[in-house]
Design a protein that fits this description.
heterodimer, A: 620 residues, alpha+beta, 7-stranded mixed β-sheet, 5-stranded antiparallel β-sheet, 20% strand, elongated, B: mainly alpha, 6 helices, 2 strands, 54% helix
């Protein structure tokens, strides 16, 4: 915009000052410019360059340092950081609970602590600390002081401090004490279930019983988790793997009923004491599916203190020891013969008291003859001669086949560990030696485990099927939902249902009229068979005077379900037979079984009205 | 008052308003001129920044362009108005001359111009050579501004995320401790329960308290009515729950 002349004038008026200043400045500038022309070019530029250079150098130095730290020393430094920050945890993943049929806890994991003392780190005097710790550790303060003075560091004060007491020790906040946690298995039922559940050793590995055989289902695999720790010691979830907190609360449910177990144990103990037997066992099995309701073996041990027990007790002799069943095997022979059709239920045989087989003479146990008796009477009186005659009607090879089908000479399929397989002579010897078939007919000359006998008697009880005796129902969650059942072989049919029922009814006569009278219970139809067998000596032959008495009972006869076996090894005394020693045990067990399983009576009990023709429904 | 430029003053082109308008008009088109332009641009930029702080009543705008357009009044008028409207007033109070001096002196190449101006226009405030701004510089400037804003936002977001992370970790830690406590209680309850059950069962077995185990002779069985489900009443003895007073489902 062109300035107006007036403006220009004003400008000019104002000029001089400015102009003067300008001129002065210009003078100076001119002078300055002369000198600083060169410098002007170099000075600011030079300064700029120097500053830039310094900054770039600094940047480069930082970059080099970064490279050095991150790449060259990177792994080492991460290592150190990890060591400081990360902590290895074994999160609380205990072994699974074991519960019984009614959800009573049989085995539970709980953390216990090992308490170490390092006296050289004590901040208070030894006496003070001893004062505080003495009541918790069950020692006198003087003892503790002596212990503290023995070593400078690393004294184990106790290795099994329970959690509550450990909390109190921590609450004291004393220096120099160290608590290392570890898990220990606790069996609240003490020795009641020792043979079934077994025990766990210090390394937390099952050594016997269910703890051993189901190790993979009880022990939860947990890898130690490395977690990062914040400055104040709290854990941070940064590196936590997926689902490292245990999510499932499955427990292992057994088929055992604690109440029945207790009753059986009490009965067995009483008889063992009375007859001074060496050992005894009681087995109760539900023949419909093979679940074992009670398994008692005396003597036994307390798994909480397994280290103090005799190691021979750790095996469950009902599955691991063989014995010759004796007369309890006779009903099975009768079933074999009936099934083969070589005899009929009302056939009679002549029992003369002795029979000659080759160079052996076989006699009855009572050394008397019973004359002409039918098969039921053979069982009632437990006549050996009668049995020999029955089996003589079978071809040995056919008989041998049957024995093999029954499972003789093979181990029982079960979920308890250390199963022994029975012994049966080989086919050649068996077929060509008539004495073998004869002795087998009354239950001697071969061996099996008590559990195997129960399994075979179960075949009579459930209509001819060999079931798998098992202790484990499966893995169950806290709401009762079954999540996993172990695979079991399917039951296989051995006898026909009619044969089995006939034999059971014959066995009923043993209890009503025969040697099994001690097992009678008013109002209930019970089948049974006594057994008094000689014990085989390891050197061949039999130990004189040593017997193994047993009694097997089946209840109730109109729809058989439960098989109960009681075995007592080497009862002493004159009157020590299956009928006197073992049958009362079975009666006591059945007394407890009836209310527990609510088995209704089969026939009238005195004042009640007849319920004869009523067939009670089979339970569950 | 606009400064007047006599076009014969400098050959190198110190543009006046008209030049500025033309320059601004030509801003869209790229002016890849000599470095003198760039220096001039920078000078004008700096001067514009500086001058925004000190708006003088009289705005003497002396944009310098290489264009040698003759000064036309209307143009300059428009330019001035435009400048006012745009708010890009390059007002050069006299004292700013020195500032402009120094800013101009940063560019070595502008010194000559500068000297020229100094000699020719003594009272004129020194205006650094205002060449056309190279486009990349403008773009960089805009980018710089945008990225500053973005960086700000990102930093704020990062702080928020960090805070939230620490908070969730804190929460997790608390809940983990709670979980551990609950697990411990559950453990203790299970163990205590089981031990008590065992103790009671053992004491019952000792039959010091006069407890008897249930017996079939004590059990009452009631036959079912025609269409009612079977009712089974176990022993009427009150303390008959001896073996283990544990969960019999239909028990008491």
């Amino acid at each position: 915009m062109p300035k107006s002349p007036s403006q220009l004038k004003l400008r000019k008026l104002r000029q001089p000052e400015f102009a003067r200043r300008q001129r002065v400045a210009k003078h100076k500038d001119k002078q300055a410019t002369v000198t600083t022309t060169q410098e002007q070019k170099s000075n600011p530029k030079f300064r700029l360059l120097t500053v830039w250079g310094i900054l770039m150098a600094a940047g480069l130095g930082l970059a080099i340092n970064l490279y050095n730290l991150q790449i060259i020393q990177g792994t080492k430094l991460t290592e150190r950081a990890r060591n400081q920050q990360m902590v290895s945890l074994r999160p609380y993943m205990p072994r699974r609970l074991i519960v019984d049929r009614n959800d009573n806890v049989l085995a539970v994991d709980r953390p216990v602590y090992t308490l170490y003392a390092h006296p050289q780190l004590f901040s208070k005097s030894k006496e003070e600390i001893a004062e505080k710790l003495a009541p918790l550790l069950d020692k006198t303060p003087a003892d503790l002081v002596k212990i503290f003075q023995s070593q400078k560091t690393g004294i184990t004060l106790t290795s099994k401090l329970p959690e509550t007491i450990a909390d109190q020790v921590i609450g004291f906040r004393l220096d120099g004490l160290e608590l290392i946690p570890k898990y220990s298995r606790y069996y609240p039922q003490d020795d009641l279930m020792a043979d079934i559940v077994g025990y766990v050793n210090i390394d937390r590995r099952g050594q016997a019983g269910v703890e051993y055989s189901q190790e993979q289902w009880l022990e939860r695999s947990v890898k130690t988790v490395r977690l990062s720790r914040a400055g104040n010691g709290a854990l941070m979830p940064d590196y936590a793997p997926e689902g490292f907190l245990n999510a499932d609360d499955l427990r292992m449910k057994l088929t055992i009923d604690s109440r029945l177990q207790r009753a059986a144990r009490a009965a067995l103990k009483a008889q063992l004491e009375q007859f001074k037997g060496k050992r005894g066992a009681v087995l109760v099995m539900d023949a419909l599916d093979g679940s074992i309701l009670a398994l008692v073996s005396q003597p036994t041990y307390n798994p909480n203190e397994y280290s103090q027990a005799d190691i021979s007790l750790f095996k469950n002799w009902t599955v691991s020891d063989l014995y010759e069943p004796g007369s309890t095997f006779k009903p099975l022979n009768v079933a074999i013969a009936l099934e083969n059709g070589v005899i009929r239920a009302d056939d009679t045989f002549n029992d003369s008291g002795a029979i000659q087989i080759g160079k052996y003479t076989i006699r009855n146990a009572g050394r008397n003859g019973y004359g002409r008796i039918n098969i039921a009477q053979i069982l009632q009186n437990s006549s050996n001669i009668g049995m020999v005659q029955i089996i003589q009607k079978l071809k040995p090879s056919v008989y041998y086949n049957w024995l093999e089908r029954l499972g003789l000479g093979q181990p029982v399929d079960t979920d308890l560990p250390f199963v022994a397989s029975g012994k049966l002579k080989n086919q050649e010897t068996f077929i060509h030696s008539p004495i073998e078939t004869a002795t087998t007919s009354f239950g001697q000359g071969f061996s099996m485990t008590p559990l195997q006998l129960v399994q075979m008697q179960g075949a009579l009880a459930n209509g001819g099927k060999l079931v798998t005796p098992h202790v484990i129902q499966g893995l169950v969650d806290s709401k009762g939902q079954i999540h996993y059942t172990p695979n079991r072989p399917a039951p296989r049919q051995i006898f026909s249902a009619t044969t089995a029922q006939k034999v059971v009814e014959m066995m009923e006569t043993v209890v009503t009229e025969g040697t099994g009278k001690a097992a009678q219970i008013p109002g209930y139809r019970i089948a049974g068979k006594t057994g008094t067998a000689q014990k085989a000596s390891p050197n061949g032959g039999y130990i004189p005077g040593a017997r193994i008495t047993s009694f097997v009972g089946i209840l109730p006869v109109e729809s058989p379900r439960y098989v109960i076996l009681a075995v007592v090894d080497e009862p002493k005394g004159e009157n020590a037979y299956g009928s006197t020693v073992a049958a009362p045990i079975v009666k006591a067990v059945m007394d407890a079984l009836i209310p527990i399983e609510r088995i209704p009576p089969s026939q009238e009990i005195e004042q009640k009205s007849t319920q004869d023709n009523q067939k009670p429904a089979v339970r569950d | 008052m606009a400064a007047v430029r006599k076009s014969a003053v400098s050959s190198n082109g110190s543009g006046l308003q008209s030049g500025s308008t033309s320059r601004r008009r030509k801003r869209r088109t790229k002016n890849p001129e000599s470095s003198v332009q760039k220096s001039a641009n920078l000078a004008t930029e700096t001067s514009s920044v500086l001058n925004k702080k000190r708006p003088a009543p009289q705005s003497l705008s002396l944009p310098l362009t290489p264009e040698r357009k003759p000064l036309s009044g209307s143009d300059s008028h428009q330019a001035k108005r435009r400048r006012y409207s745009r708010g890009l007033n390059l007002s050069l109070p006299f004292a700013m001359g020195r500032v402009i001096n120094s800013s101009a002196s940063l560019q070595s190449q502008s010194t000559e111009q500068h000297k020229n101006l100094n000699t020719q226009l003594p009272y004129m405030p020194i205006v650094p050579n205002a060449k056309a701004m190279p486009l990349w510089l403008l773009r960089m400037h805009t980018f710089h501004r945008h990225s500053t804003g973005l960086a700000f936002l990102l930093v704020a977001a990062a702080l928020v995320v960090y805070g939230w992370t620490v908070y969730t970790q804190e929460l997790w830690g608390q809940n983990y401790r709670r979980l551990q406590n609950l697990q411990r209680y559950e453990r203790q309850m299970t163990t205590t329960n089981a031990t008590l059950t065992n103790k009671i069962a053992e004491e019952a077995e000792n039959s010091k308290m006069g407890l008897v185990s249930p017996d079939p002779s004590d059990t009452v069985f009631i036959p079912p009515a025609s269409h009612e489900p079977e009712v089974v009443a176990p022993s009427p003895k009150p303390a008959a729950e001896t073996k283990s007073p544990s969960s019999s489902r239909l028990g008491y």
